[in-house]
């Protein structure tokens, strides 16, 4: 079985500040890991993904994530947040279909 | 390349009524998924098809939900009878065989049960 936990339900960050969203997964073998973003009324958009190789992966919109097998984590980061980054972010684990975490809602203060 | 198409985008029904949602996956994608996303939660897998066969329907409430994928292309998800707690967005996703797990999602069908 596979599962994902996103410990933070809400995060508020000031525009221009850095952002880190936590994701912990459970899967017996090498997981496939994903971060999706969902803006209000929008569909799920893939930010980045990890299958193998370099544990630091770059995604769209300036996001990056680091796979740490020893910590079963795949945290998402962005050095400088823009107001348009306000959205809900979902971490997901495969390859048995995708299992999603509960999401982290990001609020951006001016 | 056309994306995953879903209809209707919005549906409002009374409890105990029935509803059906339709999904057309990306051309050539053998694997199709239906997810349920309740407001404030992450998507939850309801059913997975590989071509026209069911791979996983362990989380599908089979007393009221049914899904089919005739001819291994389009899929329909039906709810009968609907309950208040079925209010959610129903997401369809597809992926190609042998892919590394990336799913492509449709925009979803938002169901409100009154």
Describe the structure.
The complex is a heterodimer of chains A (110) and B (114). Chain A is an all-beta fold and 110 residues long. In chain A, 0% of the residues lie in helices and 53% in strands. Chain A has strands at residues 3-5, 10-14, 19-21, 24-26, 32-38, 44-50, 56-58, 64-68, 73-78, 87-94, 99-100, 104-109. The N and C termini of chain A lie far apart (41 Å). With 114 residues, chain B is mostly beta strands. Chain B has no helices and 11 strands. Chain B has strands spanning 5-7, 10-13, 19-24, 31-37, 44-50, 53-56, 65-68, 75-79, 88-95, 104-105, 109-113. Chain B is globular. At the A-B interface, strand 6, strand 10 and strand 11 of A face strand 5 of B.
Q: What is the molecular shape of chain B? A: globular
**Helix share bin of chain B:** under 10%
The DSSP helix count of chain A reads 0
Major β-sheet of chain B, in short?
Answer: 7 strands, mixed
Radius of gyration from the alpha-carbon trace of chain B, in angstroms: 13 Å
Which regions of chain A have little confidence, pLDDT < 50, spanning 5+ residues? none
Rg calc of chain A: 13 Å
Q: What is the number of beta strands of chain B?
A: 11
- Counting DSSP H or I runs of 4 or more residues, the number of helices of chain B is 0
What is the mean pLDDT of chain B?
A: 92
């Amino acid at each position: 079985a596979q599962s994902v936990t996103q410990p933070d339900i809400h995060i508020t960050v000031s525009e221009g500040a850095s952002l880190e969203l936590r994701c912990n997964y459970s899967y017996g073998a090498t997981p496939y890991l994903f971060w999706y973003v969902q803006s209000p009324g929008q569909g799920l958009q893939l930010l980045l993904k990890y299958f193998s190789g370099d544990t630091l992966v770059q995604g769209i919109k300036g996001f990056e994530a680091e796979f740490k097998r020893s910590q079963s984590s795949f945290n998402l980061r962005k050095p400088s947040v823009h107001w348009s980054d306000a959205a809900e972010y979902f971490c997901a684990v495969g390859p048995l279909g995708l299992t999603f975490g509960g999401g982290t809602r990001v609020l951006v203060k001016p | 390349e056309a994306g995953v198409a879903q209809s209707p985008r919005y549906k409002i029904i009374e409890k105990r009524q029935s509803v059906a949602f339709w999904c057309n996956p990306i051309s050539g994608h053998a694997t199709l998924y239906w997810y349920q996303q309740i407001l404030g939660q992450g998507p939850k897998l309801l059913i997975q098809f590989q071509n026209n066969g069911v791979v996983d329907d362990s989380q599908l409430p089979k007393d009221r939900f049914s899904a089919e994928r005739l001819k291994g292309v389009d899929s329909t998800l039906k709810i009968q009878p609907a309950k208040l707690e079925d209010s959610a967005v129903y997401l369809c996703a597809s992926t190609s065989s042998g892919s590394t797990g990336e799913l492509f999602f449709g925009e979803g069908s938002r169901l409100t049960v009154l």
